[in-house]
Design goal:
This protein is of the alpha/beta class. It has a domain of 216 residues: Alpha-Beta Complex (Spore Coat Polysaccharide Biosynthesis Protein SpsA, Chain A), CATH 3.90.550. It is 46% helix and 17% strand. It is built from ten helices and nine strands. Strands 1, 2, 3, 4, 5, 6, 7, 8 and 9 form a nine-stranded mixed β-sheet that branches. The termini are far apart. Pfam families: Glycos_transf_2. GO terms for molecular function: transferase activity. This is Glycosyltransferase family 2 protein.
């Protein structure tokens, strides 16, 4: 989104009659996280700067939809009218929301009391298309000693290596992000062939959307503001080696899909710096401090992510060859048929 030439950057348009309205959207899919959902809703209701509306999208779960309608008042509760999964649910929220801005909060996250105020403050600058914030891991069973903070993205949280102060970034973490709603609708919203469906650990739909937004709106800024913070619940089963391995592999596969849609230049821009600077510094820190298990986790995480990425590329190549072969087969059959009649 290009800057509005009539906008005065000295005027704070996040307050007063000209302030953009903010809708907050939470997407939920299971009654198993009911307590978490209640905490997320409560954290939005107690904001120092209340949003214009809170939209709760229920992703194809009849029991949860009934329960939410019974228990929550003052919340717009809608069923996901699109394809099952997080992307479809978020697109439903985009379609039904009334706000000029829309913020997404995960159903297992709790926002700080000044979360919406901090997000809104980020939109004061003309040309800012989106604002994302810090996602702190809330380890329910304690943080494993071997788990590197550089891999906190595995559990959907901000990781060591992100800017410590406000800065422009390529993409946000999905648990805590906000956008100007109209530009997101203009590019078609979230891709439904990416993102989580139930417990399937694939993702990167928000990364692909951010890349697409930037490509469609040259000069626009996606601003990371760590002061706009939320706590993201990390249950015990996500603090295991098996989950770490599965999630790293899935992230690699997801990244290959992002590259397919947006190209390697944008799709791997952040990852290059991460591999060249963040991870070597982390490995050196572990070796110096004698944290062998964390050093092993760093190496395993990189290897598994790369393996997932290569697997995704191989699958894409196989699909391309199959599609090409299918396209050529009918032509050959027609040629043979013509020769047979001559």
């Amino acid at each position: 989104m290009t800057a509005d030439p009539t906008a005065d950057p000295t005027v704070d348009r996040t307050v007063g009659p000209t302030a953009p309205s903010l809708s907050v959207a939470i997407c939920a899919y299971t009654v198993d996280r009911w307590d978490d959902l209640c905490a997320a809703v409560a954290s939005v209701r107690t904001q120092t700067h209340p949003p214009a509306e809170l939209v709760l999208v229920i992703d194809h779960c009849t029991e949860l939809l009934r329960l939410a309608r019974e228990r929550f008042s003052g919340v717009r509760i809608v069923a996901n009218g699109q394809q099952r999964g997080l992307s479809g649910a978020r697109n439903t929220a985009l379609a039904v929301a009334h706000g000029d801005l829309i913020a997404f909060l995960d159903d297992d996250a709790v926002a700080d009391p000044d979360w919406t105020a901090r997000l809104l403050a980020g939109f004061r600058t003309p040309g800012v298309l989106g604002v994302g914030g810090l996602v702190r891991p809330w380890w329910r069973t304690g943080r494993p000693g071997w788990f590197p903070p550089e891999f906190d993205w595995v559990v959907g949280c901000s990781y060591q290596g992100l800017p410590e102060r406000g800065a422009a970034v390529r993409n946000f973490i999905g648990a805590n992000m906000s956008f100007r709603r109209a530009p997101v609708l203009a590019v078609g919203g979230f891709r439904t062939d990416l993102g989580r469906v139930g417990r399937r650990p694939l993702g990167c739909e928000e990364t692909e959307l951010c890349i697409r937004l930037a490509a469609r709106n040259p000069g626009a800024v996606l601003h990371y503001e760590p002061a706009a913070a939320v706590d993201h619940r990390v249950p015990g089963h996500r603090a295991t080696l098996s989950y770490f391995a599965a999630r790293c592999f899935a992230e690699g596969r997801s990244k290959s899909a992002v590259v397919r849609h947006g190209g390697a230049a944008a799709g791997l821009a952040s990852e290059r710096g991460y591999l060249r600077h963040t991870l070597p510094a982390a490995l050196l820190r572990c070796l110096r401090s004698g944290q062998a298990s964390m050093a092993a986790a760093l190496c395993a995480g990189v290897g598994l992510t790369v393996a997932g990425y290569l697997t995704g590329l191989a699958g894409q190549w196989a699909g391309y060859r199959q599609a090409r072969g299918s396209a050529l087969t009918p032509t050959a059959s027609v040629g043979q048929s013509i020769r047979g009649r001559s």
